[in-house]
Amino acid sequence: MTTRHALRDDPRPPPPAPRLLPLAVPLFAEMALAIGMGLVGTVLAARLGDAQGAAFALVNQVLAMLFVFFRIIGAGVGVVVAQALGGNKRAAADAAARAAWGASSWIGGICMLLAAVLAAPLLGVMNAPPEVLPLAVPLLQWMAPAVLLDAWNSTAASVLRSHLHARPTMVVNITMQVVHLALAVPLMGGAFGWDGLGLAGYALALLAARTLGLVLFLQAWHTRLGGVPTGADWWQWRQRALAPVLHIGLPGAAENVAWRAAYVFSISVVGSMGTLALATHAYTMQLIHFILLFAATLGLAAEIMVGHLVGAGRLHQANALVRRLLGRGLLMALAVSLVVALAGRWLMGWFTADAQIIAAGATLLWLTIALETGRTFNLVLVNALRAAGDARFPVQAGAVSFALVMAGGSWLLGAHLGWGLVGVWVAYAADEWLRGLLNWWRWSRLGWLPAARQMHRRLHQSGRFR
């Protein structure tokens, strides 16, 4: 079977294909500001002391781990809505969005309780140093209510983006981040002779900003989509409508949970090296987030665009789009990581004056060139595979690599062989390259086609997902 025959398109006239720039530019802006807020938060915490900086980093890792669980809904509903809209099935898109809102309430509420009640055990899993744990536990508990708000906000943003309303989504997220920053600076460090609340001030600012974000997202749903969640939409678990969302979201969440578990294990290895190593890891990762930004923007844009194209049956266009975006992402990751590595010592000086931390972080930023080019494969290809309905392959491809290469390699190279943080970074890069190449093999061999065709056929035969 030739590639062209395998990729035959739906002969029916498609809806207009989504364009890259109207999606990518707002996505880039809101993600850049979110990462910038994380960087500023780390700087503000680090100015209180290296122990506070390490506590802030550990709490954010726990929250990121919990975030994975309600991304089951956010990621799944984004793909399902995009596919339905691509196939001109607005009713199916609306049903999925309403069902996802109620599910977000349940999952977000459970995650909020976990953060509040099990703060100490969750941080203990990450091998927090004794001087860091007493600072991290109350911070995680203070930030717990924002987890539920994040669950709702994530679902709202995913639905709006899939409707190609990336600009209003950007406006809400930027407003939320600006308010957070404007409140965090005085609440953490004080003002007009007041000493401030320290880390608790960051949590209070976060809660206020996320509450405002929810109000603005609901307003955007009303004006852009013609309705908001009402009554039972807030709490009802609608299994039938959620089935296609979970079909996409659960494998994606499983992959993220496995990655997060391996990453948490690697951080526990770093934690065993001491507070200086943990602070170096935290500060370096904040800089890496900026390198990741360009490829992450392309990955999320690819997910939305591929979802629309697959829903419309435009498989040739989807295949060509992914190849184009992958090349662009690799070039951008290489260029940006090189610039950051060249400025490594200066950038690390933003966080600390400790010469040992600055030198170690600068070395890690050079190794990040290999890490981030490999990660680009996953950000573009995993999102594309998920949008095409082939959500299970990335989990299968990643399972062994997470356990043996990322987690096992971090321990073997970092702790057992004594390479320290360099060994951990080598394990990170090896894991990303292995999974990236496996996902490229899957896409280039057209292994995603059966799932894409099955989704398209079911949508157009029944008028809804089932």
Automatic annotation (TrEMBL):
TM stretches of this protein: 20-46, 58-85, 106-126, 132-149, 170-193, 199-218, 261-281, 287-310, 330-351, 357-381, 393-413
GO cellular component, one term: membrane
A Pfam family that the UniProt record links to this protein: MatE
Highest taxon, organism lineage: Bacteria
This protein's name: MATE family efflux transporter
CDD domains: MATE_like_8
Organism: Pseudaquabacterium pictum
Example GO molecular function: xenobiotic transmembrane transporter activity
Keywords: Membrane, Transmembrane, Transmembrane helix
InterPro entries given in the database record: MATE_fam (IPR002528), YsiQ (IPR047135)
Keyword Transmembrane helix: yes
